From TrEMBL:
<dbReference type="InterPro" id="IPR011051">
    <property type="entry name" value="RmlC_Cupin_sf"/>
</dbReference>
<dbReference type="InterPro" id="IPR008894">
    <property type="entry name" value="QdtA_cupin_dom"/>
</dbReference>
<dbReference type="Pfam" id="PF05523">
    <property type="entry name" value="FdtA"/>
</dbReference>
<feature type="domain" description="Sugar 3,4-ketoisomerase QdtA cupin">
    <location>
        <begin position="7"/>
        <end position="134"/>
    </location>
</feature>
<dbReference type="InterPro" id="IPR014710">
    <property type="entry name" value="RmlC-like_jellyroll"/>
</dbReference>
<protein>
    <submittedName>
        <fullName>WxcM-like, C-terminal</fullName>
    </submittedName>
</protein>
Amino acid sequence: MKMSNNGVQIISIPKIEERRGNLSVIENDTVPFDIKRVYYLYDVPTGSERGGHAHKDLQQFLVALSGSFDVVLNDGKEETIVTLNKPYEGLLIKSGIWRELRNFSSGSICLVVASEVYIEEDYIRDFDEFVEYVNRR
């Protein structure tokens, strides 16, 4: 996985293994931003897609807590697909990257850790507008 502007990165989440079960912890030293918002996607119907936008400032860290899904990433020049399927790895998506989430397996849960609270003005929801935005930067 490589984006031309280094806008994405797989980050290992600390994992504590023991016979009673594993435990992973996401703290402010796990991600390169202060955590302002946490939410999760679940019960996504077969064939449905989520995302379909970019952010001007917000950064996100996505984790497949259960099951798997694909994250389609585009920096305005190239597209790459990352499959998330391990609860001890997350995908850091910096600002200025278009993202779409697809191919959710049955029972999958996508945890999203965000650097900002919800601000509609931070979203770019049209891909052509996103490409124009990237070319102006």
